[in-house]
Amino acid sequence: MAATQDNMTCAVCTEVYTSPRFLPCHHTFCLECLEELAKRHGDTIPCPTCRAPVTVPPGGVCDLQVNFYFTEEALERARSEGSRSMCPVHNKECAIFFCTQCDQAICIRCKLTKHEGHVTEDLSDAVARCKQTIEHELDRLDAALAYNTFTKFNLKLSDEHLQEKKVALAKQVGNLYTTYVAKDSCVSHSLYVPLFGLLSSSA
């Protein structure tokens, strides 16, 4: 099964063939991969495997010979098999269960032998649960980030407000000094200077 899937894999994109085209040198590649080669090399493209020159037909790469050996049904089956999780112990068996005790994806043979008696669940259920947990954590992190941003913004506003109050208070002290204290130099020195120093130290 693995060899069949390997034979259906494009050497350029390493994915299962899409619209496979057969070159004169007997190598097959995806239509889209060959189109990218034609964009770079023009009317003559090198085979990605053997480097043999291939003349692009007048109608473009799409007019190259279709490889009918790889039917769409076979390609879809290969894609489906490639998306399955394989058992880490029995690498030819699909992992269809998840052992919650060992935190591991397992196959039916593992479930009946090494993991017998362990709590297991369908792998699809475990994947859905894990996905839900990740989404929940992402939502929580987004909320925490939004809260931190909001708090930082409020702190900045509070600091600006305090600075404005400080400037206003200094102005009031200056007005008081001018109005009531300037007439008496002794009072001026004993009241205004400490107040001015207090305002300066809080900067």
Keywords:
203 residues, mainly alpha, Herpes Virus-1, Double Stranded RNA Binding Domain, three-stranded antiparallel sheet, 8 strands, flat, metal-binding, zinc, Znf_B-box, zinc ion binding
Layout of helices and strands:
Blueprint: H1 2-7, E1 20-22, E2 28-30, H2 31-41, E3 44-46, E4 53-55, E5 65-66, H3 72-82, E6 97-99, E7 104-106, H4 108-112, E8 120-122, H5 123-181, H6 185-201
Antiparallel strand pairs: 1-2, 1-5, 3-4, 6-7, 6-8
Helix pairs in contact: 5-6
Oligomeric nature of the chains: single chain
Q: What's the mean pLDDT score?
A: 80
Derived from helix and strand composition plus strand pairing, the structural class reads mainly alpha
Report on the biggest sheet.
3 strands, antiparallel
> What would you call the shape?
flat
CATH fourth-tier homologous superfamily of the largest domain? Classic Zinc Finger
Strand order of the largest sheet: 2-1-5
| Sequence stretches where pLDDT stays below 50 over 5 or more residues | none
Return the CATH architecture of the largest domain.
Answer: 2-Layer Sandwich
Q: Approximately how much helix is present in the residues? A: 40-55%
Secondary-structure element order, as H and E? HEEHEEEHEEHEHH
Total domain count? 2
Distance between the termini: 76 Å
Beta content? 5-15%
Number of strands: 8
Rounded radius of gyration (Å)? 37 Å
What is the overall number of helices?
6
